[in-house]
Write a structure and sequence with these properties.
With 216 residues, the chain is of the alpha/beta class. Helix content is 20%, strand content 22%. The protein has 5 helices and 19 strands. Strands 1-4-7-10-13-16-18-19 form an 8-stranded mixed sheet, with no helix packed on it. Strands 2-5-8-11-14-17 form a 6-stranded parallel sheet, with no helix packed on it. The longest helix has 12 residues, at 204-215.
């Protein structure tokens, strides 16, 4: 007989964000029960409660909602180069790296920041996906592994491919609207624990009906 695998060790997630020693996080805000895994690079981001980034993911100038599931090797806000200039090279905007009397080009970086990323709540981004500048991803959306997302993704839509295109709706629009109105991602930690069995077992329509009634 094959022995059953040992349960995964408890990570001990808490109100204090869990940041792996090899991760680099700068100028960012991390919510409760968040996790930044090994080798991740996060800069100028706001990451909502319970969201996590798995190995070797990079994110810059992004607002990431709550309960966002980000797989390994994802690139969020793969920044653009100045295609309109005589050269694409970053010596034009990172000039101080090359000449002691030159300055960094602040306006260029302001342009990049103005094209940041917005990701809603309860989104799943698959392994190796790339999210290009200026994209907004709606609540509950799914980004397939390896996808390159160059356009906005509607709430509760599953997309994939290069460039990413809609595959199918995760929920019908009416269900998605009810989910947004319920906004379970804003529940307290205790309320989430109390509803854990229902999250696991109830069909979506039944889950909504039960908790809409309780909310009402």
């Amino acid at each position: 007989m094959t022995a059953a695998p040992a349960p995964a060790p408890r990570k001990g997630l808490s109100e204090t964000p869990l940041v792996h020693p090899t991760a680099r996080v700068t100028q960012s805000i991390l919510g409760r029960y968040t996790e930044i895994d090994e080798g991740c690079v996060v800069s100028e981001c706001e990451i909502g409660d319970y969201s996590y980034l798995i190995r070797q993911t990079e994110a810059w100038a992004a607002k990431i909602g709550k309960f966002v599931n980000i797989a390994s090797h994802v690139r969020i806000n793969a920044t653009n180069h100045p295609t309109w200039r005589a050269t694409l090279h970053h010596f034009t905007y990172r000039a101080q790296d090359y000449w002691p009397d030159a300055e960094i080009e602040g306006d260029f970086f302001a342009w990049r920041r103005a094209n940041g990323i917005t990701i809603g709540h309860d989104v799943w981004i698959g392994h190796g996906a790339t999210i290009l500048p200026g994209v907004t991803i709606g609540n509950g959306a799914v980004i397939g592994a390896g996808a390159v997302v160059s356009k906005d993704v509607a709430p509760y839509m599953i997309v994939g491919g290069v460039p990413a295109r809609p595959i199918r709706e995760r929920f019908p629009p009416e269900i998605g609207q009810r989910m947004d109105a319920l906004a379970w991602w804003d529940w307290s930690h205790a309320a989430l624990r109390a509803a854990l069995d229902d999250f696991r077992a109830l069909p979506v329509a039944d889950f909504l009906a039960k908790y809409e009634a309780l909310k009402g």
